[in-house]
Amino acid sequence: MNTEISQLLNNKVSWLADCGPNDDIAISSRIRLARNLRGLPFPTNASPEQMKHVIATVETAVQKTSLKDELLRFDMEAIRAIDKQVLFERRLVSREFIEGKIPGALLVTGDESLGVMINEEDHIRMQAMRPGFQLGPVWDELNKLDDELSALVPYVFDKELGFLTSCPTNVGTGIRASVMLHLPGLVLSEQINAVIQGVSKLGFAVRGIFGEGSKNLGNLFQVSNQSTLGESEQQIVQQLGSVITQIISHEKNARRKLLESNQNFLLNHVGRAYGTLRHAYILNSEEALESLSALRLGVDLGMFSSIDLHTVNELFIIIHPAHLQKYAGKEIDSEERDVFRASLVRERLKNADKR
Amino acid sequence: MICEICNKNPATIHIQEIVNGQKKVLHICAGCAAKKSTEDPLLQGFNVAEMLYNLSGQFGLPFNPEPPHSHEHEVELECPTCGWKSEDLRKNGKLGCEDCYSTFKSVLDSALKNMHRGSLHVGKSPGETPDKSCGHIMLEIMNLQKELDELVQREEYEKAAVIRDQINKLKQDVNNQ
Ligand SMILES: [Zn+2]
Ligand SMILES: [Zn+2]
Fold first, then answer.
1. Least CA distance to A237: which residue of chain B?
2. Number of domains in chain A
3. Does residue A247 sit in the same domain as residue A287?
4. Cα–Cα distance between B81 and B98 in angstroms, integer?
5. In chain B, which residues have their Cβ closer than 8 Å to the Cβ of A228?
6. Using the 8-state DSSP alphabet, how is residue A224 labeled?
7. Which of B88, B116, B130 sits opposite A229 (nearest CB)?
């Protein structure tokens, strides 16, 4: 097994395991910046030699920043498909990045809070991620890394259009800020479509947990800015922040109302999900995610004293196919995975109960 | 779908709620939602319209994504630096190199307007936070651009010409910095 991958699997993932503000509803806050090097075509139009040159240049630069001592490195051409999938399930890389056939690399800190993708759609895609709703600190951290890097490599920058990116949807600030929200209250009370429409009207995108095109399984939603030009990074982050604050208060309201007027419905919903997770012997990923969402709601509402949020958060990630196979220690097909998933979930919840 | 209250505007807000075990759905337009939000208990609880109006007021600029233009009558272009063609841009919506931004300027200008809230960068420049760079001038240019668009729409071309000259002068200042 790739040693860096096993290091990841054994590490404490900061954005899953640490507490953050509003983490009953907001799971994590993430910001990404897109940057390109002057004088070289974008990865969309570069030769393999040019991309290798980009990797060498960016990597040398990142190794000179304050991150240098804690970096793990993944060469996309060298690692196995299942290891790429693990990186994807941990939200460290995009689907485009692992499916691309071009030379690329990922540099990431051991706690997975800061990472740099080299040769995704742009030469540099750096991201910072923290638990809960805390876009401000995430921006400060990423901004600092960007400042450090900009002193080491020449960015493509235009006075009118800002940072030039391979796709014009990212031009200007190159910033994509997003918060992952768990919204079972709005889904159960059927208000979620209204919220999604309202939020899209304001120019913000709502996506599933794994980004573009993914279903919002487990009532997990990612809300992010779409416009990157015409406003400063701070403005964009603040606006997203006010949208998120509104959604969180609507979710809290919805949960309170369900508890007041529909208590039996709610208790039944959570209790049945717990029963499934605790006792099932075959569990597909869709059912697992739906049940985990209900369990998380129950934990938030104080129905389970022994299970903490981070046990549930972690289960949300490790029930995915590549992680399961890593824990199983071998490649297993989808039928076997459903059995293994059920036993892994039973085990984790049993251990939580004992504590 | 037409708004159930005014029967005039398209219904863009759909509110569903379970009331006494019965599913109730209301399809209304943003305007009626704003009016109704103060009186209707269904909307008081949730109030998406309020959220919409409060926030768009706060943001200043309305966000109006439009469907992409058809490219039928456009000239075929090719980037002299990297060889990227109009066809490549059409096919995957991406550009080949930094110079593509000037090569495909004619196509990009209107596309960028539909994608973003503004047409000029007001954020940080490499290694510099906005207050140290020329962010304030960019902001001024943006406001003037908005004014210019309104004047052109009202066909007040003389006033528009004055604003346009102001914009060009500011742009020159930025480039000479
Ligand atoms: Zn109406
Ligand atoms: Zn080009």
1. B123
2. 2
3. no
4. 9
5. 116
6. E
7. B116
Cβ-Cβ contacts under 8 Å for A307 (sequence gap 6 or more): A295, A299, A349, A352, A353
Distance B109 CA to ligand 2 centre (A): 16
Task: For residue range A203-215, list pLDDT tens digits in order.
Answer: 899 987 665 555 6
Q: Is A283 in the same domain as A303?
A: yes
Cα Rg of chain B (Å, integer): 22
Q: Count CA atoms closer than 13 A to A212's CA, side-chain side.
A: 4
pLDDT tens, residue by residue, A198-254:
888 888 999 876 655 556 688 999 999 999 999 999 999 999 999 999 999 999 999
Q: Is residue A149 scored above 60 in pLDDT?
A: yes
Q: What percent of chain B has pLDDT over 90?
A: 19
Give the distance (Å) from ligand 2 centre to CA of residue A45: 8
Statement to judge: residues A229 and A270 lie in one domain: no
Mean pLDDT, chain A, rounded, equals 91
Query: Given this model, what pLDDT does residue A240 score?
Result: 94
Could you say which of A202, A234, A255 is where a domain stops?
A255
Two tokens at A18? 């640490």
ipTM: 0.86
Q: In angstroms, what CA-CA distances link A80 with A99, A108, A112, A117, B79?
A: 12, 18, 20, 17, 37
Same domain, A242 and A267: no
Residue percentage of chain A with pLDDT more than 90:
72
Q: pLDDT grade, residue B60 (50/70/90)?
A: very low
Q: Which of A226, A255, A284 is the last residue in one of the domains?
A: A255
φ/ψ of residue A16, rounded to 5: -105, -35
What CATH number is associated with residue A196? Answer: 3.30.590.10
Judgement on whether residues A105 and A163 belong to the same structural domain of the protein: yes
Range of the domain at A238: 3-255
A205 and A307 housed in the same domain: no
Residue A38 and residue A165 in one domain: yes
pLDDT at B26: 72
pLDDT in tens, B103-159: 999 889 888 988 898 899 999 999 776 554 455 666 677 778 778 888 888 888 888
Residue list, CB under 5 A from ion ligand 1: B 3, 5-6, 9, 29, 32
Closest listed ligand to the CA of B88? 2
d(CA A141, CA B84): 36
* Number of other residues whose CB lies within 10 A of the CB of residue A111: 15
Question: How much is the pTM?
Answer: 0.80
* Residue count of chain B: 177
Which string of DSSP letters, residue by residue, matches B17-52? EEETTEEEEEEE-HHHHHHHTTT-HHHHHH-HHHHH
The reply to whether A134 and A161 lie within a common domain is yes
